[in-house]
Design goal:
It is found in: Nucleus. The protein is of the alpha/beta class. Helices cover 43% and strands 13% of the residues. The protein has a single domain, classed as 5'-nuclease (Rossmann fold, 3-Layer(aba) Sandwich), CATH 3.40.50.1010. A five-stranded mixed β-sheet has the order 1-5-4-3-2, covered by helices on one side.
Length: 167
């Protein structure tokens, strides 16, 4: 979900980087976002076609896309399949009990992960030190380092404490 309008305000302190920049580092990933994207892409075409037919061929792309997004969900079975794959690949993972962004921020603040990959701007107020947002299929994303917030141009964070950013 994220904080509405936050990422555009922080554009001056984000850099486009390739995920390869973090080769050899420990990365925390909000995998639910990836599962949701995968589920959306897998079902999108069929649902879009059906919705267009129901609307008598009226192809309002945004309305169809929004309806498809609401219709798609990530099932427990999908999550369990991902967990099985991660175990087979011997990849360490944590299942967040509630909010993944808060869990990832904890891992970042404790220096357990070097960077967090997420599509959710909630990572910023939760305190993630470095976040790679909006990762594309070809590995590019918007890198935001928390320590850069003071240099932001659109909204000044100079003099803000951690508590002020996090509330």
């Amino acid at each position: 979900m994220g904080v509405s309008g936050l990422l555009p305000v922080l554009r001056s302190v984000t850099d486009q980087v390739h995920v390869s920049k973090y080769a050899g580092r420990t990365v925390g990933v909000d995998a639910m976002g990836w599962l949701y994207k995968g589920a959306t892409r897998a079902e999108w075409k069929a649902k879009a076609k059906k919705l267009i037919q129901e609307q008598d061929g009226e192809e309002d792309g945004r309305a169809v896309f929004a309806a498809c997004m609401r219709a798609v969900s990530v099932t427990n079975e999908m999550v369990m399949k991902l967990i099985a794959v991660l175990r087979r690949m011997d990849i360490t993972f944590y299942v967040a009990p509630y909010e993944a962004d808060a869990q990832l921020a904890f891992l970042s603040r404790q220096k357990i992960v070097d960077v967090v990959i997420s599509d959710d701007s909630d990572c910023v107020p939760y305190g993630v030190k470095t976040v790679l947002l909006k990762l594309t299929p070809d590995g590019w994303g918007s890198e935001l380092k928390r320590r850069s917030l003071g240099a932001n141009e659109e909204l000044s964070f100079v003099g803000w404490t951690e508590e002020m950013v996090s509330r």
